[in-house]
Amino acid sequence: MQQSALMLYRRDACLLCALAEALLGEAGVPYAVVDIESSPVLEARYGTRIPVLARADGAELGWPFDAAALRVFVARSA
Q1: What's the pLDDT score for residue 12?
Q2: pTM above 0.85?
Q3: Can you give the pLDDT at residue 53?
Q4: What is the pLDDT, as a whole number, of residue 2?
Q5: Disulfide-capable partner of 32 in 4, 45, 51, 57 (CB 3.0 to 4.6 Å)?
């Protein structure tokens, strides 16, 4: 199985995270989910900044983002 080039850092019961996932789904963008509550390091790093979409090159796109910003962010990963 190929690993996704995009990671969505999120937590459960996060309305903004659900909105970001809906936007990613509508755009047909493949991504993997990382629950920041599973790691004290991620919790400290992202805290209330979630949702955050990260590329394999380390670039991050923080919320709020729209479909246009998402397209540009994804295009730069190619």
Answers
A1: 93
A2: yes
A3: 98
A4: 45
A5: 4
What is the pairing mode between strands 32-35 and 6-10? parallel
The dihedrals phi and psi of 33, each to the nearest 5 degrees, come to: -100, 135
Cα distance between residue 9 and residue 42, in whole Å = 9
pLDDT of 51-77, one tens digit each?
999 999 999 999 999 999 999 999 987
Question: Contact 3/27 with Cβ under 8 angstroms?
Answer: no
Identity of the amino acid at 31: Y
Task: For residue 10, give the nearest of 41, 40, 43 by alpha carbon.
Answer: 43
Cα separation of 51 and 74, whole Å? 16
DSSP string, 16-41: HHHHHHHHHHHHT---EEEEGGG-HH
DSSP assignments along 57-72, one per residue: TS-EEESS--HHHHHH
